[in-house]
Amino acid sequence: MRIDVFGDTLCASVTAAALAQSGHEVCWFIPEGRVLDAVNEGRVPYREPGLGELLGEQRAAGRLRCEPMTLNGAPAAPAVFLALQPGAQALAGEIADWLAGSGACGLLVNQSVFPVGTSEALQGRLAEARSPARVVALPETLQEGVAIDSFLRPHHILLGCDDPQAETLMREILRPFNRRRDVIRVMGLREAEFTKLAISGMLATRLSYMNDMALLAEQLDVDIDTVRQGVGSDPRIGEAYLYAGCGFGGSGFSRDVMSLTDTLRSKEVSAKLLEQVMEINERQKEVLFRRFWRHFEGEVAGRRVAIWGAAFKPGSDRVDNGPALKLIEALWAQDVQVHVHDPLALPELEAWAGGHPDLILHDDPYQAAAEADALMLVTEWKQYWSPDWSRLRDSMGTPLILDGRNIYDPDYVRGQGLLYHGIGRG
């Protein structure tokens, strides 16, 4: 089947590549900007494991074409996917108008993270133009760092659809990714859009709850990691998203929770719980700084700190709303020099910092930690899990380890002659 994909998001790139891999003839229409420039220059638009290889293979096979976005020329494909940037509802409307005039498209698939009701509004727009095309909502549920796998082997697929023929076509398009068991959950358009936001809100709430419990655990001299295992063993709760840490980031997670909060407010429903979730998360982003401040009793000016991990999560090159940003700003405010290592995110961090003189980037994690008064673990990249403790102890000015993800064994680290503080575990 011919399929058109519109957008410059990670979701658009993964959708286009995965659909092409399953045998469809896909044209990926990309708006002007960074992503289109990267594709035209033969570069990978997103530092996502496996994405570059998959895009290259499908383009070489002739199943995937990448074109500048245009609403002129050839008629639309029978199925059109929208994976646009947040806030691009006006562009989505223009595409819907073009589809109505094209007459070829029978299915418009909205993957974009827009306010609840957008897919319904697009359907109304097509109906006003007397277009037979149907709109379905397919909320984007990709996890950065494992985006390819989460598309090819999804745990669940939310499908907002109120038309039997549209559902049949969507099930056929998604069939290669729905073989182990039926993971498609069919619901109304608004229900699918809202469910996506509600999932993000629930996961954010679990994280912030555990961070609140971590503060209490420290006061009670309790190891929050042991508590986490006990709580997660209850089948009514489960283990996912119960890790105390130095806060979550990323544009998607934060955006979804804020969108849900705004929706609640717009309907005059109290959003206090989610507001507190976000407040706790922002507070948690400075927890390592507060540890550092207390250890040196406020005498931190002129000191040197190493940070391992700036990306908002392992596997990503993005720093959007990540805890490292707020932490770095807090350190700069106290005249602390910051040395950072990250496997992928240093270019993004450098662009964010804008040439700040107290940010030094390193290609080697041990060079970043050399002569540092503290090493702060912010992003739990696998290469940080088993460091050379003796090398750190001997090279650091003060062998203070501030573990923002609780990935280390406190007793072992202390037994190697270093000072250790985690989150909710002393």
TrEMBL record:
Residues 306-410 form the UDP-glucose/GDP-mannose dehydrogenase C-terminal domain. Keywords: NAD, Oxidoreductase. Gene3D superfamilies: Cytochrome c1, transmembrane anchor, C-terminal, NAD(P)-binding Rossmann-like Domain. Belongs to the UDP-glucose/GDP-mannose dehydrogenase family. The keyword NADP does not apply. Its EC number is 1.1.1.22. It catalyses: UDP-alpha-D-glucose + 2 NAD(+) + H2O = UDP-alpha-D-glucuronate + 2 NADH + 3 H(+). Pathway: Nucleotide-sugar biosynthesis; UDP-alpha-D-glucuronate biosynthesis; UDP-alpha-D-glucuronate from UDP-alpha-D-glucose: step 1/1. It holds the Pfam family UDPG_MGDP_dh_N. NCBIfam families: NDP-sugDHase. This is UDP-glucose 6-dehydrogenase. It comes from the Bacteria. InterPro entries: 6-PGluconate_DH-like_C_sf (IPR008927), NAD(P)-bd_dom_sf (IPR036291), UDP-Glc/GDP-Man (IPR017476), UDP-Glc/GDP-Man_DH_C (IPR014027), UDP-Glc/GDP-Man_DH_C_sf (IPR036220), UDP-Glc/GDP-Man_DH_dimer (IPR014026), UDP-Glc/GDP-Man_DH_N (IPR001732), UDPglc_DH_bac (IPR028357). The keyword Oxidoreductase applies.
